[in-house]
Amino acid sequence: MIKLTVLYPNVADLKFDKDYYIEKHGPLLTDLLGDALKSVDVNMGLSGVSPDQPAPYVVITNLTFDSLESFQGSFGVHAEKILADLPNFTNVQPVVQISEAV
Q1: What superkingdom heads the lineage (predicted)?
Q2: Whole-prediction pTM value?
Q3: Which residue of 60, 68, 72, 90 is 20 to 30 Å from 100, comparing CA positions?
């Protein structure tokens, strides 16, 4: 199982439209990635290690795929369209990691 983790840093000048992300960007991903996308979870940051500390990331999203080939075959062909949507909901560059879920 392959997991794509996308982390949006909670920086001082952050702009992030959570409604757009959930209502527009999420369905865009689902439509473009199709059956290759096995699951998605979206985590909205609340705080750091203690309630008085800001969350280091405003949003962390995990997308799972059966294999690296499945990920590359679905995400790769649509990467330009997916990345072009980012300015519609944020002004920060996300941190991305591809992992093997064990």
Answers
A1: Bacteria
A2: 0.93
A3: 90
